[in-house]
């Protein structure tokens, strides 16, 4: 009896995964088709998720993600150990540079910014907390993937091969592995217009004792500032900050 129950619960929770930037609202018919379940089953899932506050009815029998998720996000922020330890350090970086400071995490193979401390002239970012970032573009994703072990990195290489080739990365495994090994050895990465043409970033990984990464910390600024920014100083600031946060977490 437990297996069907677990399977049903997984499918019901799978409803939440059907919402993204291109599908902000769904109907019960959409959900039934996407999950390959009957319409009565789809309505049952919707009813239970409405009761839990994880969905809300918006218009013409369309449903969107519900207010409970906002509350859960509040609790996630308060419980985030990297943010609790890192926030004072991020504010120091902003005070020292005037640039935005961003925390970024990798969850499976999904890269998400988890917090942004605004600088004196906040950058216009297309990505922010909760919006998945491209896996192979930008400074933060580069240092996060560089922290992966060889086996973990090869799984990414195999499962996301078309995407990494489109991103201009080496198409063969030995070269791909060497590319990220070089970033790991450097301990930082500087991107210049890589993800958004008007933005540059300097990122470093906040490392765990086992060599993996808690998160990445970045300083983000307009590419027009590259001519006057002391990149060596920026690298020293961001790597020192990452080391301090990692040491406190350890």
Automatic annotation (TrEMBL):
Superkingdom of this protein's organism: Bacteria
InterPro entries in the record: GAF-like_dom_sf (IPR029016), HTH_MetabolicPath_Reg (IPR050707), Tscrpt_reg_IclR_C (IPR014757), Tscrpt_reg_IclR_N (IPR005471), WH-like_DNA-bd_sf (IPR036388), WH_DNA-bd_sf (IPR036390)
Residues covered by the IclR-ED domain: 68-250
Keyword Transcription regulation annotated: yes
Pfam families to which the protein is assigned, alphabetical: HTH_IclR, IclR_C
Domain HTH iclR-type per the UniProt entry, residue ranges: 6-67
Swiss-Prot/TrEMBL keywords: DNA-binding, Transcription, Transcription regulation
Name recorded for this polypeptide: IclR family transcriptional regulator C-terminal domain-containing protein
Organism the protein comes from: Variovorax ureilyticus
